[in-house]
Amino acid sequence: MSQIDLALQQDESTSEHAYASRSQWKMMVSRFKKNKRAMVGFWMVVFCVAVALLAPWVAPYDPIEQNMQIMLEGPSLNHPFGTDEFGRDILSRIIHGTQISLMTGIVGVLIAVILGVALGTISGYFGGLADTLIMRIMDIFMAFPSFLLALAIVSVLGPGMINVMIAIGIFSVPTFARLSRSSVISIKDKEYIEAVKAMGGSHLHIIIKHVIPNSIAPIIVLSSMRIATAIITAAGLSFLGMGAQPPTPEWGAMLSTGREYLRVAPHVSTMPGLAIMFLVLGFNMLGDGLRDALDPKMKL
Amino acid sequence: MFAYIVKRLLQVIPTLIGVSILTFFLIHAVPGDPARMIAGPEASAEEVAEVREHLGLDQPLYVQYGKYVSNLLKGDLGVSLRSERPVLDEIMGRFPSTITLTVMAIAVMVVIGLFAGIFSATRPNSLIDNVTMMVSLFGISLPVFWLGLMLILLFSYYLNLLPSGGNDGFSHFILPALALGLSSSAILARLTRSSMLEVINQDFVRTARAKGVKEKLVVYKHTLKNALIPIVTIIGLEFGTLLGGAVLTETVFSINGLGRFIIQSIQFRDYPSIQGSILFVAAIFVIVNLLVDLCYGLVDPRVKYE
């Protein structure tokens, strides 16, 4: 280990900042725990994650097995959410659909976080031409209504959930890039960064070890909120036939097929919609709570 | 002011160029051979070649882009592969429905969102504030297409009050505008509340109250007026969300608008139409945001156009 590395390590463990950030996290957690709405959101999300992970065991029926004898039946003891046009159990389909929606939301936002934080950090840290170029490109992406941009990307890549994730990732990049740029700018001239620079830390070292960890908090808050948007957008794309293809039990696609039976069997559309709302509400409440815990004045 | 307008107009040009580049590349981002994709899997080699030539895909990229832009400047968005009519005509035939829907949704959003927000902000942390904010949390979590279906179920099927689809008259737009606007009104309500709360505790508001100004005047003239900038900004941004959301709403309510046209074009792989309509909508969105920027001065005279 070189001397610089040693010095840098020392810097991290002994700097006032390290203590400050640790207690800041503690304060954040305690503020979050006191916020009832945030805790409800947190448990709603935990519930959905558990359902998604345990789907094969908790779903009472096979989500794609058809049984024409019981098609379009309303809610009953055997089928609490009723059955769809192929006699499939809607509850089981919703349970399995949780996996798809969560996965799409999380992977989509992860793509956006990785690209957005990378671009935003380069932009904010180096400034100059790179900054201008990156931000102008982001502006162009933002000139498109976001749902339309996602739709355009999927129309090019072709329908399918993987492409939906890519589309959601791309259309969320500018939001993350802007936020991470502004939080990088707010810390890049701080003394502890100057100190690492003075000790000869490379740009890459400073960015990875100091700039990103110290500018990530708002990104986490935004992620939680964007997962909510991503889930609704993905369901919307599937509703239009651009996402999951039959017989995949995707909520938006289920809702779309239910449209044809709205008059005779409204539960086919109602139930998946309620599921979407539950999960999205959970993420929105969680995001609100994280924002308030982190910085009540933050505008996100 | 005039210099500012000119400056902002000039700033819009690079954005529009960027938008045109992005939509131009849309067709080139198609995996594999776009001509083959458009012609369909059963098309013969000659047919594919014909499509390629027809769309100019056999020429170098810069030639294609140059031609694309020079056509754009002449108002030529190409010819629809599906109907073989000019894309611009197709768009113009459908745009009135979409803009009617969007503007009505904006009205829903402003009326409900603004008043709910003001109502909440003037009674902070009361039961009614908590309920309003909880309802608006539900509102932002609602998928617009699901809300649309539920409105059809309630108002068309059960109560028989309003038509469930089509675009023949004003009454046909009520449910779609509600479905589209409600979610945005929830966003606006939250923002109005937080924006007003920031102002309501300031000295000038206290002074106004102290000198005995009526509460209504304090709220609307002193507080709301000073909280308007973020509100106006979000209305402009939501315009884009609503234009995008119109795709879903038009599908749910079978409105023959631009959104449905885009979906039909995607299903038909009618790339000139997809390109043209997306470019058109983005241009409208850019112009609306420009107008919002220009409104800042009207809303808040302290904003200096420099």
From TrEMBL, chain A:
Regions that span the bilayer: 38-59, 100-126, 219-244, 264-287
Stretches assigned to the ABC transmembrane type-1 domain: 98-287
Pfam families with a match to the protein in the record: BPD_transp_1, OppC_N
PROSITE patterns, per database record: ABC_TM1
GO biological process: transmembrane transport
Keywords: Cell membrane, Membrane, Transmembrane, Transmembrane helix, Transport
Keyword DNA repair attributed: no
UniProt membrane topology term: Multi-pass membrane protein
Keyword Membrane attached: yes
Coiled-coil positions: none
GO CC annotations on file: plasma membrane
SUPFAM superfamilies associated with the record: MetI-like (SSF161098)
Cell compartment(s), UniProt: Cell membrane
InterPro entries assigned to the protein according to its UniProt record, in alphabetical order: ABC_transport_permease, BP-dependent_transpt_permease, MetI-like, MetI-like_sf, OppC_N
Family membership noted in the UniProt record: Belongs to the binding-protein-dependent transport system permease family. OppBC subfamily.
Listed name of the protein: Diguanylate cyclase
Organism per entry: Brevibacillus panacihumi W25
From TrEMBL, chain B:
MF (Gene Ontology): nickel cation transmembrane transporter activity
All copies of domain ABC transmembrane type-1, residue ranges: 95-296
SUPFAM superfamilies: MetI-like
Gene3D superfamilies for the chain: MetI-like
Domain of life from the UniProt record: Bacteria
Principal place of residence: membrane
Keywords annotated in UniProt: Cell membrane, Ion transport, Membrane, Nickel, Nickel transport, Transmembrane, Transmembrane helix, Transport
Mode of membrane association: Multi-pass membrane protein
GO cellular component, one term: plasma membrane
Subcellular localization, as worded in the UniProt entry: Cell membrane
Transmembrane segments: 12-30, 99-119, 131-158, 170-189, 227-248, 278-299
PROSITE patterns: ABC_TM1
Transmembrane helix in keyword set: yes
Assigned protein family: Belongs to the binding-protein-dependent transport system permease family. OppBC subfamily.
Quaternary structure annotation from Swiss-Prot or TrEMBL: The complex is composed of two ATP-binding proteins (NikD and NikE), two transmembrane proteins (NikB and NikC) and a solute-binding protein (NikA).
UniProt cross-references to NCBIfam families, sorted A to Z: Opp2B (NF045470)
The name this protein goes by in its record: Nickel import system permease protein NikB
Originating organism: Brevibacillus panacihumi W25
